[in-house]
Amino acid sequence: GDEAYSGSRSYYALAESVKNIFGYQYTIPTHQGRGAEQIYIPVLIKKREQEKGLDRSKMVAFSNYFFDTTQGHSQINGCTGFN
């Protein structure tokens, strides 16, 4: 069968391994880093807003060199990327 998607048999083996090693109950497989960024960055920014009361327009993400997609996802979600 097609093993490219999260409903595949190998997904369940991966999810179980992640849970056993890291203790994470939930696993979201992504095909590339940019797909993971599209999920992770908005969640991270929203979490900082809610927990710390921060305004996303004043948030800055620092890096010594962003991938284009990382900086783009930060900016799309209202955070400034700074190399």
Describe, in plain words, how this protein is organized in 3D.
Residues 1-79 form the Aromatic amino acid beta-eliminating lyase/threonine aldolase domain. This is Tryptophanase. The protein has 83 residues and is mainly α. The protein folds into two domains: 1-30, no CATH class; 31-83, no CATH class. Helices cover 52% and strands 7% of the residues. Strands 1-2 form a two-stranded parallel sheet. 5% of the residues are buried. The mean pLDDT is 86.
Number of helices: 3
Whole-number total of structural domains? 2
Q: How much is the radius of gyration in Å? A: 16 Å
Q: Give me the side-by-side strand order of the main sheet.
A: 1-2
**How many beta-strand elements?**
2
**What portion of residues belong to β-strands?**
5-15%
Low-confidence stretches: none
What is the chain-wise order of helices and strands?
Answer: HHEHE
Shape: elongated
Give the termini separation. Answer: 43 Å
Overall SS class: mainly alpha
Q: Which range best describes the helical content: under 10%, 10-25%, 25-40%, 40-55%, 55-70% or over 70%?
A: 40-55%
Main sheet? 2 strands, parallel
Q: How confident is the prediction overall: mean pLDDT? A: 86
Organism: human gut metagenome
Keywords: Pyridoxal phosphate
GO biological process, one term: amino acid metabolic process
InterPro entries: ArAA_b-elim_lyase/Thr_aldolase (IPR001597), PyrdxlP-dep_Trfase (IPR015424), PyrdxlP-dep_Trfase_major (IPR015421)
